[in-house]
Design a protein that fits this description.
alpha/beta, Rossmann fold, 2 domains, five-stranded mixed beta sheet, three-stranded parallel beta sheet, 13 helices, 16% strand, elongated, disordered N terminus
């Protein structure tokens, strides 16, 4: 009897072990998707709608590869600690990135100059998640949007027409959900601008300054529209007869220069022979800025193309150094 009872127990245990192996021995099967070792299904990418200067654009997820179509857009992106995946060169005749952005763009694809018509093939090859253009590319919205979601931003202007760096920065930052960082960078910029403004005011007081560009065709006298950094941030006094800020510039004949007669001239020249002939005239040599050696040659990429926290900070430094005749103090 005892022997038979032991056999029954062994058989019973064996049957249970077999059942456990084959069917779980009384346990419920795990729900589908919760099997041991099964990878969870990926969450669908969330969509966001970005409101920009030409409407609204739907973007799936957070864009990682943001392509810039203009150097000043690259300036703003870098200032938001965002490296553009691709960026244009510094100008129509240039093959390199703008010199003061080169370090920040060392890992970016160089698109070459993109105005008036962008290189769509090269943009496609760079596989962007988001394209950021400005007013130069509005007519190409449909073509660019077929490559990747595209947003547009123009420089923000005040009621007088002056182009505002800080407001433009915040506008783009709001599109990319980087407002807090932008506010921080603006606060840092304001502190630096105040430092330079104080030094310049102490050195030259209310002396006037102008931006004069000499092309191969004409003299151009630039309004405050493009130079908030000089007349607001640095606090320079405006000379007589300055153009209205609703216009970027107005042509100026040599004969009209004495009516302006600024104490300081920031001089961008591209005219070759025209510059040489201008410097030989009695009118030019009779200007206060010329007689006092207060004419300062400036860089095209920085002073004319530059716009954004990086460029504006460098212009502040450069202008202060030129006006003081020495490197600005700390």
């Amino acid at each position: 009897m005892i022997f038979l009872q032991r056999v029954k127990k062994v058989l019973s245990g064996a049957i249970c072990l077999f059942a456990l192996t084959a069917a779980g021995c009384g346990t419920s099967p795990a729900p589908q998707g919760e099997q041991t070792g099964a990878a969870p299904a990926p969450a669908p990418a969330q969509e966001q709608t970005i409101e920009h200067d030409l409407g609204k654009t739907v973007v799936k997820g957070e864009p990682k590869k943001i392509l810039s179509l203009h150097p000043w857009i690259s300036d703003f992106l870098l200032s938001m600690d965002t490296t553009p995946s691709a960026s244009p060169s510094s100008g129509p005749k240039a093959t390199e990135f703008t010199w003061y952005l080169q370090d920040g763009l060392k890992d970016s694809v160089n698109l070459g100059w993109q105005i008036p018509k962008p290189n769509l093939e090269l943009i496609v090859q760079s596989s962007p998640d988001l394209i950021v253009g400005n007013q130069n590319f509005g007519e190409l919205n449909e073509q660019l949007s077929k490559i990747a979601p595209t947003i547009f931003i123009e420089p923000v202007e005040d009621e007088k027409g002056v182009r505002k760096m800080r407001d433009t920065f915040l506008r783009l930052a709001s599109m990319l959900k980087k407002e807090e960082l932008a506010q921080q960078k603006i606060a840092e910029y304001n502190t630096e601008a105040e430092k330079y403004r104080t030094q310049v005011k102490a050195a030259i007081g209310e002396q006037t300054a102008m931006f004069l560009r000499v092309t191969d065709k004409e003299l151009r006298y630039y309004s405050p529209k493009l130079f908030e950094v000089l007349y607001d941030d640095l606090g320079l006094a405006k000379p007589a007869n300055i153009p209205d800020a609703s216009k970027s510039f107005q042509p100026l004949s040599i004969e009209k220069l004495p009516e302006v007669n600024p104490d300081h001239i920031f001089h961008l020249h591209e005219g070759g022979d025209r510059v040489s002939s201008l410097r030989e005239t009695a009118i030019w040599n009779g200007l206060a800025a010329v007689k006092n050696n207060h004419v300062y040659e400036v860089d095209y990429d920085l002073w004319f193309q530059g716009f954004g926290p990086i460029a504006n900070r460098l212009i502040l430094q450069d202008a202060t150094e030129k006006l003081l005749g020495t490197k600005p103090g700390k």
